Amino acid sequence: MVMFKVSRVETTPFDGQKPGTSGLRKKVKVFVQPHYLENFVQSTFNALGADKVTGATLVVSGDGRYYSKDAIQIIIKMAAANGVRRIWVGQNGLLSTPAVSAVIRERVGADGSKATGAFILTASHNPGGPTEDFGIKYNMENGGPAPEGITDKIYSNTTTIKEYLIAEGLPDVDISTTGVTSFAGPEGQFDVDVFDSASDYVKLMKSIFDFQAIQKLISSPKFSFCYDALHGVGGAYAKPIFVDELGAQENSLLNCVPKEDFGGGHPDPNLTYAKELVARMGLGKTSTEEPPEFGAAADGDADRNMVLGKRFFVTPSDSVAIIAANAVQSIPYFSGGLKGVARSMPTSAALDVVAKNLNLKFFEVPTGWKFFGNLMDAGMCSVCGEESFGTGSDHIREKDGIWAVLAWLSILAYKNKDNLGGEKLVSVEDIVRQHWSTYGRHYYTRYDYENVDAASAKELMAYLVKLESSLSEVNDIIKGIRSDVSKVVHADEFEYKDPVDGSISKHQGIRYLFEDGSRLVFRLSGTGSEGATIRLYIEQYEQDPSKIGRESQDALAPLN
């Protein structure tokens, strides 16, 4: 057995190692600086404390983006030096963010071990490659992102760090082959267990959904399907689930080979970046072939999703509302009823209307999946979502792109269970339009102003806060531009008091609420790697059945 020693390496702090809502994200060129990654990892170990590190089992994997393989080897050596007992790595370093959460919660090692945390290497939907983005975040024993109490401690540690620990004499571990490699150190044995990336996650999905019902739908000659992983880690799950388990044709998978640079593309599942899928689904400028009935895309780490029907786009805000409205009948996991539902504040109020109609507990939380996790841990929430293409449930503590796709396939299977031999299947568009006619329609759009000068962005937000105290001035400004816009009746800076732990999150976005249920929301986002991003959300609620079929840009024109 190879022996290693613990080496203490002197270091000095780097500026700006403050984790955002989804960890620390920077350009690769920043991360590859000597000591940069090591400082952040050691600061994390120090924040967790010896009781959570010594003898622990931790997961280290990610979306496979450029620099991941180097980072995994560094973290393995540092974990060994800090007294961690074993590291679990998905084969080739690949685990989707939802799969990491599932592995922490569900996997039991051959020796009976359970993981208590994870380093996830991802910058989510941001591009990858030598000149692009890298990221790292820590997830806790519940499978969810570290809470603010921990991330604040990590940041504080990065500003004062003087040394880090690393194993000397521990060789790089082959992460391309499954199996356990053991080493000996001052604290005793240290193991690295490389395991199949998909099996635990596939098992979990099979316990949630009726795979037989979905299989019947997929095998119907009237049904066709397309899944685009955008060369992200979702590709590692696409074949095992959609082809091997559900019987879809292999040619229904697009861009399902994970690549370090995502094939040169931007792994963000939206109408702009999922170009190939959008064209195949008949939403491109030219369309010659008959599009499939159902299409979906994932982002780099497969926690986000986009759902499309034939020539039809489902907004993420509508998607979570429709899943919640149909979950109990369509998905065995929810057959006993929903504990509650939740959405992020900028997400449209479509879910609120479903909750009210179905008499469900409802929560509006700040952006950041950890807020949903608290509610789920307390047994208060079953289904949740956010407008930025994130949907999920209490099966794990992260958003889950493939879960959302399987949820939609389950709804389609349920709606078509007596209709598979009929003339025409109930389509994605049919389901959405039926939902609108029952609950009303929330017309919705979002504008992103990226790489804005950080000081100017703060100045703008401060001005918008100041305007809140003078609604008459706001209404005068609006009337001067458009006379057909409803009156602003309330404005505030969103603040959230967590019903579980009582913690308060301030400055979570600025809301202007109109008399007719419309909203304007402004928010500074923390998921970019450079500059500031200002997001503007515009929403118009329409209950009149004669007006729910309009084009979004027409319905939203007065507010734009």
Structural class: alpha/beta
Report helical residue fraction: 25-40%
Mean pLDDT level: 94
Quote the beta fraction.
15-25%
Query: What distance separates the N and C termini?
Result: 66 Å
Described by the principal axes of the CA atoms, the overall outline is globular
Uncertain runs: none
Q: Helical element count?
A: 18
Biggest β-sheet: count, sense, barrel? 8 strands, mixed
Q: What is the CA-atom radius of gyration, in angstroms? A: 24 Å
Number of strands: 26
Strand order of the largest sheet: 1-9-10-5-4-6-7-3
Write up this protein.
The structure is a single chain. Strand 4 (57-62), helix 4 (68-81) and strand 5 (86-90) form a beta-alpha-beta unit. With 560 residues, the chain is of the alpha/beta class. The chain is globular and about 75 Å long. The strands form six sheets. Strands 1-9-10-5-4-6-7-3 form an eight-stranded mixed sheet, sandwiched between helices. Helix content is 32%, strand content 24%. The longest helix has 15 residues, at 316-330. The protein contains 18 helices and 26 strands.
Brief descriptors of the model:
alpha/beta; single chain; 26 strands; eight-stranded mixed sheet; five-stranded mixed sheet; 560 residues; globular
